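HUMAN: Mind sharing a backbone?

ASSISTANT:
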Amino acid sequence: MLRLGAISNMRTETLSGMRSVIAKAGLLDFFGPSLLLFSSVEGIDKSQQQFFELASQRAGVPAEYCNYVGEDDAERRIAALAKLRTSYHPLHVFHVIDLMTRGH
């Protein structure tokens, strides 16, 4: 089963405030409730490997089964250090998922 989460650097936003924004956009139902991670809430950000490790822990699966999609190369490198698979573009993630489900 695939689940979607979000990892975002935020300055002061609260979890309830961000959930409200995502709900107003009609997207909240697509995300796992525990998989919305915001730096302003967690006290860490995407410059830290621990943020990506926390996402994997919250998902309840090994990091190798998590995909991080982000346009920032430095963030993708840090996610890879946390053993997450990375994609530079949202459409590319489908290729990564296909490889994972085939066991490659």
The chain has one domain: 4-102.
